[in-house]
Amino acid sequence: MSNVTRLRHVLALPADMVAATNVLDDALIKAIDEAKAAGLPHGLLAAILQAHAYAETHRMVAR
User: Fold this and answer.
1) Is residue 27 assigned to a domain?
2) Cα distance between residue 48 and residue 58, in whole Å
3) In the chain, how many domains are there?
4) Stated pTM of the model
5) CA–CA separation, 35 vs 55, rounded Å?
6) Rounded to whole angstroms, how far apart are CA atoms 49 and 32?
7) Is residue 2 part of a domain?
8) Rounded to whole angstroms, how far apart are CA atoms 42 and 61?
9) pLDDT tens per residue across span 16-31
10) 35-44: per-residue pLDDT in tens?
11) Residue 32: CB partners within 8 Å, gap ≥ 6?
12) Pick from 57, 17, 31: nearest CA to 9
């Protein structure tokens, strides 16, 4: 997906935010790898991630 730009690489962010996003990325990658290794179907994994993203977005805009 070469047409996708990750904003965190384009925008200047404070070091603590960069560190936090790196920790988040690492945790997500580890959790996804563990779920795949456990045999979780990829479609179910994608649905779970989407549901969490939707729920967090809803919490942010509902404040």
Assistant:
1) yes
2) 15
3) 1
4) 0.70
5) 20
6) 9
7) no
8) 29
9) 988 998 899 999 999 9
10) 999 999 999 9
11) 45, 49
12) 17
